[in-house]
Each structure stands twice: as C-alpha cells, then as structure tokens.
Amino acid sequence: MSSTYILTLSCANQPGIVAAVSSCLFAQGYNILDAQQFDDTETNSFFMRVVFDPASPECNIDAARSELDAIATRFKMRLSVRDTRQKRRVLVLVSKFDHCLVDLLYRRRIGEMDMHIVGVVSNHPQDALDLPDLGMVPFHYLPVTRETRIEQEAALWTLVQETGAELVVLARYMQVLSEELAAKLVWRCINIHHSFLPGFKGAKPYHQAHARGVKVIGATAHFVTSDLDEGPIIEQDVERISHRDTPDDLIRKGRDIERRVLARAVRYVVEDRVLPNGRKTVVFID
Amino acid sequence: MSSTYILTLSCANQPGIVAAVSSCLFAQGYNILDAQQFDDTETNSFFMRVVFDPASPECNIDAARSELDAIATRFKMRLSVRDTRQKRRVLVLVSKFDHCLVDLLYRRRIGEMDMHIVGVVSNHPQDALDLPDLGMVPFHYLPVTRETRIEQEAALWTLVQETGAELVVLARYMQVLSEELAAKLVWRCINIHHSFLPGFKGAKPYHQAHARGVKVIGATAHFVTSDLDEGPIIEQDVERISHRDTPDDLIRKGRDIERRVLARAVRYVVEDRVLPNGRKTVVFID
Amino acid sequence: MSSTYILTLSCANQPGIVAAVSSCLFAQGYNILDAQQFDDTETNSFFMRVVFDPASPECNIDAARSELDAIATRFKMRLSVRDTRQKRRVLVLVSKFDHCLVDLLYRRRIGEMDMHIVGVVSNHPQDALDLPDLGMVPFHYLPVTRETRIEQEAALWTLVQETGAELVVLARYMQVLSEELAAKLVWRCINIHHSFLPGFKGAKPYHQAHARGVKVIGATAHFVTSDLDEGPIIEQDVERISHRDTPDDLIRKGRDIERRVLARAVRYVVEDRVLPNGRKTVVFID
Amino acid sequence: MSSTYILTLSCANQPGIVAAVSSCLFAQGYNILDAQQFDDTETNSFFMRVVFDPASPECNIDAARSELDAIATRFKMRLSVRDTRQKRRVLVLVSKFDHCLVDLLYRRRIGEMDMHIVGVVSNHPQDALDLPDLGMVPFHYLPVTRETRIEQEAALWTLVQETGAELVVLARYMQVLSEELAAKLVWRCINIHHSFLPGFKGAKPYHQAHARGVKVIGATAHFVTSDLDEGPIIEQDVERISHRDTPDDLIRKGRDIERRVLARAVRYVVEDRVLPNGRKTVVFID
Predict the structure, then answer these.
(1) Whole-angstrom distance, CA of residue B281 vs CA of residue C137
(2) Catalytic residue among B98, B103, B229, B272
C-alpha cells in the first residue's frame, strides 16, 4: 500500500525554490496534496511544508528522495521527507498534575494524535499519579533530588535513546532540565508553561496572575532551551477571568487551557508543522 | 517604479499546476513573496494565490501575463493577475446605522485598507446619517419605496458602472437587492448580516437571539446572492453574552462585531484573498 | 462541622425581596459569602442565588429554612436551600463517542466537579465504548430499537428513581428521548448538541456546517425538552475554522468544544447556578 | 422627571451590610434594579454596586442619601451615590495615533457612552492628528519637551480642574506622566497599553512581541500610577497572530484590540462599574 509523505525544508531565501521542488515532485510522479510556505523577510529565510503522495504505483520514493537531496544540496537546505506511516515516537514526562498526560493518552487512544507514546516518566511513583490506565505504555519512576539529578538525567537520556523517542513532552513536569540535557534535546522537547508568556515566568504563575489582577489568563507550549521559559513558542491560548476568581479557580480554568494548548502543540510537532526559526517557530497550521 | 502583483487561480485539480506556475514566474525573473494553495478534495478543485515582484528591472509583466495565460488555457484555469498599485474601487451602501461605514472610512483614511471608496449610497438623506465627514467621497441619495425600487436599482447599477466599482459593500444597508441586481453583482457584493449565520436569518436577529436565550452572538460577512442570507460566507466572529443583556445591549455589542467582521471581509476581498468555491469561499488569510 | 448553603429563588419582581432575604440571614446569624441577582424586566421576574455559611456554631439551619420558607410564601417564590455537603447525584448517558463522558469522569476524579456519578447508561455494550475505567460507577447497557424504545425508557426512568439521580446528562447520547420522558425530566436533563444552536439542528451538524462553509463552529449545552434542539440554552462556545477543515477536522475540533461546554454546563447546574426562566436560563457564572 | 441612581461602596467585610443597604433603600421607597457584590476573602474587603430608582414620586433622594451616609459611617464604608443624569466629564489625551480617540468620539456621538468629552489634549498640533471632526469639543495643544514638561503638566492639571474632568483617558498618549501628576489623578486616569500586561512593558511592545514570537497579542487598559505599566488592570483582550505577521501587521491588528479594550474600560468607569481594590480592581461587568 502506498503512503503519504511530508516534506519540510528551510534555507536562505532565493529564487527558484518552489519551482525546483514542485517540478521535481511532478517529474517523479507525485501529487502535491497540500503546500504551505513562508518567507521571513527579516532573516531572509524560507520555509516550506509539502504533503504529497504517489500518483501511480510506479513511483519510487527512493528516487524522489535522491532528487530532493540534490535540490537540498544546491539550495543549502535543511530538508526532510517523512513517511507518515512511521509514527513519531513520544516520551511523556509528568509530575503530580496529570491532566495533560491523561488528555494526550485519550487523544492517542481515539486516534486523534498520530504518535506512539513510548513511555511515561515521572519523578513521583505511579500510584501517586492515580493514573486511570496506561495500557501498554511503560511507566518509569525517576525520582529527582538535588543529589540524584545528574544520574537521573543520565537515566532519562538513556531512556530517550532506548525508546527511540523523537519528541520529549514535559506535561506539567516540575523539574527543570539541566543545560546539558536541554542542549541534547534541542528542538525535540516541548514544555507547557501555565502562563501566557512572557508574563509570569517561573513558579506559581497562577498565583502571580491573581496577585497582579489580570483579566485574562493563558498557557504557552514552547520548545525547551537552557534559558528557562524563554524557549521558542509553539502555541498559546487564553481564557477570560474576573476579580471573583481565586488562585484555585485560575488553576482549574488553567487546566483546560493547558491541556488544549499542549495537545495542539504536540499535534503540530508530530505532523511536522513546526519549523525552527531562530528564537521563534514557523507553525503551518491546518 | 516596480510593483507587486497578486495572482489568483482556480481550476480542476491535476498534477503539475504548482510546478508550471512557479517555473513560469522563475523563468520570467519574478520572486514569489507569498504563496498559498488549497486542494478541495471533495470537489477536486484547486485554488492558489501567489504574490510576486520582479527580481530585476528587466522583468516584463506583459510577457509574464502572456505565459501565465498560456498556462491558464492549458489547465482550464480561471486566472487573474493584479498590479497592487491599482487599488480596488469600492462602493459602500448604508441605511441608518453608520458604524460600519464610519469604520471603513477611518481604516481607509489611515491607510489600513488598500482601496478607493468611489461613493457612498444611502436610501436616507445625508443629514439623516449625521456622517462626520466624507471628505472627497461623493454621496448619493437613492430613496427606495416599493414603487421606486426598480428604477433605483437601475440608478444604482448605473452608478456601479460609472464609478467602475469592482466591489459593492452593503454596510448595514437594509434594502434587499432584487434577484436581477444580485445576479449582476455576483461575487462582487458583500453584505454584513448581524447574526451568526445560519442562525437568525431575516429581520431583527438580535431580538431573535435574545428571545432564544443564546449565550454567544455573532456577525457574518457574506457574498450577496438572490437567496437572502444564504450567500457564501467570507468571515464570521462572535462575542459572549449573558442573561443580563437586553436586545439593546446585543445591538451595542453587535456593532463591534459587525464592524470588525465586515472590515476583515472587505480587506480580504480587496487583497484578492477570497476565491469562490461553489456555495463556499476559500479565504487565504494573512 | 458546619457547612455552606446555596439558596436560589425566583419570583415575580416586587420591592423588598433582597431586604427580606438578607435581613433574615443576618438575623439568623449567617454570613453571605456570595450573592447574585437578576431582574428580568421583560417578564418582571426576579432571580437570586445566595451562598451563605454560619457565623457561629449556634446557627440553626432548620430555623433559617423555616424563616426563609415564610418569606417564600409571602413573595410567592420558588425557593430552595441546599447543603453543599450533599453532592448532586448525576446519571450520564452515552452512545459511541465517549469524549464527554471521559472528561466528566476525569473532572470528578480530581475533585473539580462536585457531584456523584451514580451510573453510566449506554445503548452500546461496555466493551464497544472501550472506556478506560469506570471505577465504582455502575454501567447499564440499555440497547434501544424502535420496538424496545418504550420499555427501555421505562427502565431508564426506573434507574433515575433508584439511583436518586437529580440530573441526567446526555453526553453525546444519540437517542432522542420521548416526549413523555422529556416531560418527566424537565429542567433535570442536559444535552450537548454539537453545533452552535440555533444553527444546524438535527443530525450531522458538522457535515451541515462544512457544507454551508461557516468560518466558526460551536457546541451548545441545553436542557432537554420535547421540542428537539429547542430547549433552554445553558452554555455555548465556538472555535474558528477555515476552508481547509474537512468534516473530520470539524469533528475533531468539535470534541474539544463539546467537552468543555458540557463540563461547564454540568458544573453550573450542580452548583445551582442555573435558574429556569421560561424558554431561557439565568446562569450565575463564577 | 425621576432619575436612576448608582450606589457603590466598599468596606471591610462584616455581617449585615447587604441587609442594611437593601432595607434602607426599601424603606425609602426605592426599587433595586441591579445589584452586584463581591467579597474579597483574601483582604476581607466587601464591594457592592446597586442601581436603583424611585418607586413613587414621593421618594426623596436627599433623605435616602442621608440614611445611606449613616450606614456608611456605621460600617466605615467608602460610599457614593450618583445621579445618572449627571454624566461623567472626561478629558482625552492623545499623541499621533488617533484610533482610540476617534472610536471614543464615535461611541459618544451615537449615545453608546454616557459621558461628556470636555476636551481633547495632544502634544501634537491638531492638524497633525488629521481628526475628522471634534464638533464642539475644545482641542488643547500642549507640546511637551524635557524642558517644558513641568509647566505643561501644570497646564494640564489646570485644565482638569477648569473642565471639571472626573476622568482622564490616555488614548495612546505617548508621554509618561510625572509621579506628582499620577498621584493627583489616582484612580481617575486610565491608560491603554498596547500589550497584554505584564508581558512587554515599556516601549514598542508590538516589536517586542514580534521578536519573542508569541502566538497571541493583546492590549491592557489600566489605571495610571507612578509605577509605569504597573497600575491596576481594568480590562484586557487578545487576538491570535501567526509567524506571518510582521510588526506592522501586529500594529494593525493591535489597533482593533486597543480601541475595544479602552472603550470597554472607559464605559465601565463612567458607569461606576470599577471599584479600587488595592493593586487590583473589582469590575462589575454587565
């Protein structure tokens, strides 16, 4: 059975890119199902995402890849082509609050998220989480103290490698990754921060928001970098609040924002919709 | 001085369209600044919008147009290329409520809307509108009664032709156009309906919404067809209300929704972002 | 241990209501923690919700109730006082799509929803639902065919009585209740309709929305009446879509809207925030 | 002709407040049309807004005021009663961007905002603003340089006193008020900041937002304090953006957010819906 492919590319902007890519796919017998592109005129960068499938059984993806690689070399592109039958492998980290994890598990179960969850890691034991049911997903208990942090991060890194995890999702994981681990996971690790960044960085953002008296709260999904709460933003959303809302109300309302923002961000990443652009992201939304 | 061009096209979907268009523009020496496309797999239709400008002074837009026309013929496309220096000519019709008109005039004044307002038509005299200042924009008073409707529509049609209006905007114009005039203005006439269609068609939608007890109200900008309130939708937006809101509150809150929905729709149309797709529209949003 | 009480009342508007109620609670030694009121000037109706707790251990809720009942008689009020320690008993009905049910179960599990789920009923067998874990909640399989509808509704009504269910939630339950059952459950049965009512009543609303080409979709939680999709609306919300969204995309995006709209509506009801107002509702939002 | 009155009060929370106020109004022959209240359990503060009108021509507002003042003394309240026939007097300050000013003028013209605009002040000459028409509203040109700032603020303060301005609105006024003037205008001066505070304080917030790569932008209306961009927030709103939006696009989209946020905040203040609560506000929204 034939598959669908997703091509993503980025490079310095220059004439002829679209012509080269689309002509190549046409010549190789592929149909373009969807294409989105973006010129960042500030940085003179070009970004593109193309979804394509074979027009006939004669199509040869290896030949297409080879031609596309030649184009990538010519235009000095970062280019990747992914067969959508190969689902993204995702490792989810969680601490005590499990609403994002439960939501991701549910979405995967009903087939909404095209990914394999290859494991769940927590710094709390499984019974502390009171998880409904992980099914076949392995659970890893990696408690972290100041003393054990380095070795536990090593264990985590080993786990990433052993599971082949392409994406690590911090689903309300309350430990800060070390600079070293953040560097190893660059553009491969997403965090959900429970505020509308750049407002209310750091700890207890809902309490900060309550103290400041804002009228709208939000959540932010971003790539993890060594600079806490400063990573490139993938998705944000907000909800209106009022003076009547206590910090507990904000936490409750925030859960709904967090889980939908993180779910969107994870979906965008596993569907290759998110391309790095320096400190920012290009997100080709459907 | 060189210009920027907007190409829009639609046709039956078939392999090679993007390759043909992008290769042509590349060969003619043009840079693609932005491109968006859409495959409607239900109707097997393809839609594309490309913004391009010349890479050098040697570029010849007539030559490019000629090549593009050849492509259009080959692929049986509806294709148009517009020089953005030629602003769209827009005629605005209004009755007693002038918030949408005032808003459009203001946006044009500060340069937000790339259009010429070639005239304002009302079925009420100018002093009834209490308009702040139309500047150089001619005002036409075309009162409509059951008896005069046919001749006034003829006058309106003459005005459209004389002013070269490419777009007619019903900015809370409370007269229903005849089937004949609607047909003449097909895909060239926008209405703002003060409800979230298809809910609350017809008269007094805010009163209908109040009576039904909805918790959210909205507005809809759509192309005018002979079938009242059934035209293809361009843009919609909503706002939350509560049981405390009277019909007058809804009218007040609705004004804000109406003017921003209509302004967006007009901007999308004058920037060639809206392509007809049967009973629906493709809107390439920025 | 002392408790908190919620008083709700409605009656014809007349002078002195607030003075009578607040003076009574003050005289009985209760603190008013929260109070919201609404005058419907159209129908000359008055609605009030008061949260109060005892200022001292000497307070006697029976005495307070007796005084309040006297006020209710004097003003011809519908008045109720509920001890918040007595959680609302809720029966949830579901068909094949379980996202709303799973969401309600999760919210109850983490203590967000102040209710007992006394049972889950489905017209499909439990394994068809592939539910993660109902815990202690009994599951009832009540398959419905044209022939068995009357007896199954009888079984359902028996279940309502046996479980003491004060609220029945149709969480994407795809069977229409008979006029008789709807009448028995008046103001006690909530449905989530997967469209922004009054738009797209009836079957397959997302397909209707796609065919109409709307730019925003929504969901509506409403009380069930014998008049399908016409019951008093409790809560609505929406999300923006585009021409790119297929009916399947709308179904996916809609799930998120449905579950948050239904969860809010159920929370409002179990917290006595929703008061009947003819064909409409008064919702005292926090 | 009789009038409607708005009572606002705040004090330390204590039993009997609502009973005292509502019994007084009832005894004096007034109808309560609307009442909202809020207990801030953190600070043990109580806030209330009551709208009332006379039930008969015999009602005497002076007698009612006198009784209410006695209650205020007893409960140590800040209490005010305003006759809604006396419209709030508002002074609007503006620099080069006039979208908020134009919007406020329009809303006042159509009767949406219950206020007198007693003057417009700018640090730019009137023709620089290209204002459509101020009608009868006096324009004051008060250019500010580092040298003249003190004397111009003195002129501004004189203007506030001469016009009897109860509210000063900084409608994109780009000069920072001195600590002294801010102190004189405490709780009487509103600013619109073109970001979603506390994110992007200070200059060029849209450029900051673009550089940070946020996915949502916003605007904030707040009371002016000597601590720049730290004043109590009255209203905020947001809009979704994407990687495609340039700083100019954010400025354009921001204009719509700014004018609606400022208009709401001004309306809330002139309708006595906003009560000070330390660093925060209580806003009794309709």
Answers:
(1) 48
(2) B229
Q: How far apart are CA C204 and CA C212, in angstroms?
A: 12
Residues of A with CB under 8 A from a CB of D: 38, 40-42, 196-200, 211-216, 218, 232-238, 242-244, 246, 277, 279-283, 285
pLDDT in tens, D249-286: 999 999 999 999 999 999 999 999 999 999 999 999 97
A25-34 burial code (b ≥16 CB/10 A, e <16)? bbebbbbbeb
Q: What is the pLDDT along chain C (286 residues), one digit of tens a residue?
A: 578 999 999 999 999 999 999 999 999 999 999 999 999 999 999 999 999 999 999 999 999 999 999 999 999 999 999 999 999 999 999 999 999 999 999 999 999 999 999 999 999 998 887 776 788 899 999 999 888 999 999 999 999 999 999 999 999 999 999 999 999 999 999 999 999 999 999 899 999 999 999 999 999 999 999 888 899 999 999 999 999 999 999 999 999 999 999 999 999 999 999 999 999 999 999 7
CA neighbor of C123 nearest in space, from C92, C163, C167: C92
CB-CB neighbours of A117 under 10 Å: 25
Whole-number Å distance between alpha carbons of D134 and D257: 23
Burial class (CB in 10 A: 0-12, 13-18, 19+), C84: middle
Between the alpha carbon of residue A107 and those of residues A7, B251, C218, the distances in Å are: 25, 40, 20
For residue B32, list its beta bridge partners.
Answer: B52
Structure token pair of residue B130: 């209490």
CA-CA distance, A117 to A163, in Å (whole number)?
10
**Which token pair is D156?**
């501004």
The dihedral through the CA atoms of B167, B172, B173, B175 has a sign that is positive
Q: Roughly how many angstroms between the first and final C-alpha of chain B, as a whole number?
A: 25
**How many separate helices (H) and strands (E) can be counted in chain B?**
8, 13
Question: B40, B276 in Cβ contact below 8 A?
Answer: no
B neighbour chains, 3+ CB pairs within 8 Å = A, C, D
- C-alpha distance from residue D35 to each of B213, B256, C14, D51, D271 (Å): 22, 26, 15, 6, 13
pLDDT digits (tens, 9 = 90+) for A109-155: 999 999 999 999 999 998 887 776 788 899 999 999 888 999 999 99
Task: From chain D, pick out residues whose CB is under 8 angstroms from the CB of C23.
Answer: 19, 22-23
Q: Residue D285 carries which side chain, given as an amino acid letter? A: I
Cβ contact (<8 Å) for C112 and A252?
yes
| 3 state SS of B44 | coil
Contact A167, A269 (CB under 8 A): yes
Token representation of residue C146:
């044209």
Please count the CA atoms within 13 angstroms of the CA of C104 that sit on its side-chain side: 32
pTM of the model: 0.96
Query: How many Å apart are CA B10 and CA B284, to the nearest integer?
Result: 13
CB-count burial class (<10 Å; 0-12, 13-18, 19+) for A120: buried
Measure the CA–CA gap between A75 and A54, rounded to whole angstroms. 24
Give the Cα separation of A263 and C259 in Å (integer): 15
D69, D83, D103, D229: the active-site residue: D229
Main-chain dihedrals φ then ψ at residue A9, nearest 5 degrees: -150, 155
Identify the three-state secondary structure at position B238: strand
Residue A54, CA atoms < 13 Å, CB-side half-sphere: 14
For the question of residue D227 being annotated catalytic, the response is no
Are the beta carbons of A64 and A93 closer than 8 angstroms? no
DSSP line for A31-70? EEEEEEEEEETTTTEEEEEEEEEESSTT--HHHHHHHHHH
B286–D102 CB contact, under 8 Å:
no
Q: Which residue of D has its CA nearest to C27?
A: D16
